[in-house]
Amino acid sequence: MVKDDARRRWTLLAVSAAQLLVVLDGTIVNIALPSAQRALEMSDASRQWAITAYALAFGGLLLIGGRVSSALGHRRTFIIGLLGFAAASALGGAAISPEMLFGARALQGVFAAALAPAGLSLLTITFTEPRERGRAFGVFAAVGAAGSAIGLIAGGLLTEYVGWRWCLYINVPLALLAVLGAALVARDRPGRKTKRLDAPGALLSTAGFVAVVYAFNEAASFGWGSGKVLALLAAGALLLAVFVTMELRTPHPLLPMRILLHRARGGAFLAITLMFVAMFGFYLFMSYYTQTILGYSPVEAGLTLIINALATLLASTLIAGRLHGRASPAVLILPGLLAAAAGIFLLTRLTPQTTEVFGLYLLPALLLTGLGLGLVMPPTASLATADIDRQDIGAASAAYNAGQQLGAALGTALFNTLAATAAATYLTAHPHAAASAGAVHGYTTALTTATAILLAATLLTAPLILTRREQRHRSAIEKRPLTGTPSVNDMSPRHEQRKTSDG
């Protein structure tokens, strides 16, 4: 018994460390990029690829990574992902040209696409008892939510005192420590039904996700009306539509549609995707507003976000973790969305003349959004991988991570564009206004949209997860151990009986 408890602890530590690596790497390089640009003599037009290469590879290959994880075994894929991520990070840190750095960043994204779903799958099959499962997913969610803030702080400190290359080198010891922890994780058997890779589905999903994520990234620079952006969005939508059509017909789909069509699981995907759209708009506001309007340094701006990270940590572990299995996920997810909406809405009241900004506005907004994120992430992560066949766990984990990636990319691009457009319109209508007044107007306009998105997420998610059947069966679902037989965690018995006949 003690041995099993130790294995579970090591699994949680290793998976949390890997989650920190994946999320942290999405922001830490942002801070180091100006220094890297000077050192490697990058052009202004090409520097974005240090960010975009990672995002495209990570988001585009997640579904393939999830299926590979099920085929090879989640533990084996997890270790391969960690070692590959460490090697790619070392390569990027040693880059002597922009092309070498861009290639290393893309390689990081490739291994992150295998690492992220494998880690979430390991948590799912390791923690099956309700209370332990709640605590585990609470810690996992807190680490993920804190990763962005930690990345901003670490990036600022490392770039200022050690050098930009250490923003990549730092991943190597962290990844190797996680590998040591993963060596103590219990072995899992590869899925018998996942030996054959759906090659057409892999190509279509990768091309579709890459087109959509790239369009989101380009929209931040060229605007949503750009012909390039519209063409990429149309191509991505078409490729993904063909992908879905093919997945419904192939006997060995890359992403079985039953994963997305399950009512409660669909609600979890929808909630986390829209939550990330709004929250990354919020993080963008915090970065720009604190530095350009309040005059904070990058390190001070990052430290401010620690309040949000701590609130997320407390909410995910002390509230969501403890209530897991005792209360319906809707009891956590819906108030979490509303709390985040309230926090963001508070910031829409800011004006250029506002005083006591930190105490009256930023602090409560950081606490409320952190509370909301901490309440939403653990139950959605659990719902995304509950009530599912063992061979589909990797695909479900990948779909959950893909929702986060798409939400983050869309939120960053959407709110950057909204803020810039609203600011320009305001200054045109008020030619004598200060530039800071236009900027604040742009930020509050974008945040109003973020508030509306979270309110819409609440209304759309509620009917999917707030059902009598879900509440009646939830406690029984979580108490059943995960086995290799279909539908062992059955949130919707009649649906799952149909599901097994679907393949």
TrEMBL record:
Keywords: Antibiotic resistance, Cell membrane, Membrane, Transmembrane, Transmembrane helix, Transport. Coiled coil: none annotated. GO terms for cellular component: plasma membrane. Residues 11-469 form the Major facilitator superfamily (MFS) profile domain. Residues 472-481, 492-503 have a biased composition (Basic and acidic residues). It is found in: Cell membrane. InterPro entries: MFS, MFS_dom, MFS_trans_sf. GO terms for biological process: response to antibiotic. It is a multi-pass membrane protein. This is MFS transporter. It comes from Streptomyces coryli.
